[in-house]
Each structure stands twice: as structure tokens, then as C-alpha cells.
């Protein structure tokens, strides 16, 4: 018996009956020989963790564009916080931690530079629109490994695609990540907003604070505990109605106070303009695209799609560098 098979047996002994078992995976688009050590979801987690698109998350904006400080979140730290919240919930509910972690680590791989401002800019100019969750799936399916993709399991692919609130993943593990994503960004975006002087703890309305807590730690603890206690022993991932209502109110408060706050968003128009200018440039000069995008165009990918793929893959720093290299006059040496 291989180590993988021993781990798969352990899953059947430990996990809840409604968990996603590695042996019951819907499989990969391209069948592969099994690893002798790692079950399929652990293998997916490792593929995502070692991908270039995952490493680029460290230089992509979460909410605050180019903040003056070392402790503001990036897309990478957001992803790690989502993963930690989701694993805590999954372990308590006896669900598959490997699957939860793989989905969490991969859910934002397609995010643009400059956070949701970059996403809005590409959505505005791309003929078929742009949505980061679809781009995340496109990244793992088509763009990683120089166009070969990561060939992930259907469970991980589904969780990545359906982590937004309008759809529901078919696994409970994917549903955990979907909620953990929202909890994480509300929690850490408020922390960053307080650090940046945009909010104070006492600004949270009393009707919300009285239900979910008056500090960041209390609120995070309350949300996670509520999901666990409400979902325990049931094939469902949910919050109690009281906490769900408070969470919706808190999210609305954050949109009003932070996500549309002129101080927090003062530089976003510049970022959007930069994205639009880069898009226009590469549409006119496709010969300057990387080899992967050129190859995709040669095999039938529309030019606008290849340009969106390239710009979405950029980090904030790289997008600024490309903009400067194209449009900012350079110093020149006189010999």
C-alpha cells in the first residue's frame, strides 16, 4: 500500500460523510497517473503554491493602492488569511483541508494589478468583459506553465470559479472558501482602514457591534465560531440568521465607509488610466506581447483576449514599469 493510499484511508476514517474524499474526485481534464505520496487535492495545492501566478500575488494591491507602510495587506496576504480561516472551519467540521487550502490559494490567481480598480478598467474595455474569478480559472487552465496549465481537479476548479457570492460551489469545501473570502477581506480591510486613519473602531454602528463584537479580533472569532456551530453535523455551510444579517450590514458599512471612500481611492483613477493606456498600446503593437500570448494568438485566441491575459498577469510594479518604458521619456547619454 502506498503512502497516498494510507492517507486516503485515513480520510474515510476521520472526515464527515459529506466531505469531498480524494478517492471520489471527479478527476482532471487530462487523466494522470496518481502520485504515490500525495492525494489529488494535496497535489493541486502544491501545484498552485509553486506557480508563478501565486508568487505574483505578493505585489498586487488588495484595497489600498501603494500604501505608505509595511503592514498593509496585499493580494498574497489576503489569500493566506482566506486559507487560514477556511482551514480552521474545515478542520472543525471534519471536511477536507487539502481541498479547502487548494481552492483558497488559487481563488485570486487571476486578479489584476491595482486590485478591483484594475478589474473594473479591464471589464470596461475588454469586449467580452473581465471578471477576476473567471480569469483565475483561465490562469490555472490555460496560462500557467507556459500555456500547459496546471490540470487541476474539477473540485478545485469549481471552487475557484464559484468563490463569488452569486454562485455556489458544488463541494462544502468550496462553500467554506466562498464565505472565508468575504470574512477575510471585511476583517483585514477594516484593519488596514483603521491603520490608515480612515476608520476608528467606534465608527462601527452599535447595531452591528452589539451582535458581532467591538474589536477586529472579536468579530473574526464570532464569524468563524458561528459558521462552525451553525453548520456542525450538517451537510451545509451557513451562518445563523442573526450573524448573517450583521455580516451583511457590516459589509454595507465597509462599502460606504472604505471601498468608496475618496481618501482610500484617490489614486485609483490613475491606475485605471494606466491599464487603459497599456491595453490600447498592446492592441496596436501585438508584436511586443510575450511569446505565450503570441502563440495563443497564432492558434486562434482573439488579440483583445491575449492582451487582457497579459495585463491581468502583471503585478502593480511591473505594470508601472511597462507604462514608464513605453510612455515616459528616458534619460539619454551624450557621448
Order of helices and strands: HHHHHHHHHHHHHHHH
Shape: flat
Rounded to the nearest angstrom, the distance between the terminal CA atoms is: 72 Å
Low-confidence stretches: none
Largest sheet at a glance? Answer: none
**Structural class of the secondary elements?**
mainly alpha
Mean pLDDT: 94
Q: What radius of gyration results from the CA coordinates?
A: 21 Å
Please report the number of helical segments: 16
Percentage of residues in helical conformation: 55-70%
Q: What is the strand content?
A: under 5%
Q: What is the strand and helix layout of this fold?
A:
Blueprint: H1 3-14, H2 40-49, H3 52-56, H4 75-92, H5 97-106, H6 115-125, H7 132-143, H8 154-161, H9 172-195, H10 206-212, H11 216-231, H12 241-259, H13 268-284, H14 291-298, H15 303-313, H16 316-327
Summarize this structure briefly.
By secondary structure, this protein is mainly α.
Description:
- By secondary structure, the chain is mainly α.
- 60% of the residues lie in helices and 0% in strands.
- The chain is built from 16 helices and no strands.
- The chain has helices at residues 3-14, 40-49, 52-56, 75-92, 97-106, 115-125, 132-143, 154-161, 172-195, 206-212, 216-231, 241-259, 268-284, 291-298, 303-313, 316-327.
- Helix 2 (40-49) runs parallel beside helix 5, helix 8 (154-161) packs across helix 9 (172-195) and helix 9 (172-195) packs antiparallel against helix 11.
- 43% of the residues are buried.
- The mean pLDDT is 94.
Throw out a few tags for this protein:
335 residues; 60% helix; flat; 0% strand; mainly alpha
